[in-house]
Amino acid sequence: MFVGPEEKEDLVYLRAALAHRVPVAFEHDVRYFAALVANCNLFVGCDSGPLHLACALGVRTVAIFLNGNLDRWGPPAELCRLVYRESGVTVTDVLEACRIELGLLSGESDAGKIVNG
Length: 117
Description:
Blueprint: E1 2-3, H1 11-18, E2 25-26, H2 30-38, E3 43-46, H3 49-56, E4 61-64, H4 70-73, E5 80-83, H5 91-105, E6 114-115
Parallel strand pairs: 1-2, 3-4, 4-5, 5-6
């Protein structure tokens, strides 16, 4: 889990709550952050700079959007799986998108690019 400057004060809590099951990282240098992201198999994030960086690096990405402006602000569909629902994205939507993407990484076929329940 990557945290940004806004969550930096929550690092101690997140690390304790997640124990050693999920590594929690804060990296303020964009070059080091990019190196960390480049080594991910899957990047999950909401519409943000780190999400677009992951796409630019060629990392498979699940992009969570709260607004339907995907044509303007969404990354190209070939670089990510867009998750959007007009009534609001659910945890199930995001988990399904992750399941599909992880399946693609293991060689399963693509079932569509937008998960919108």
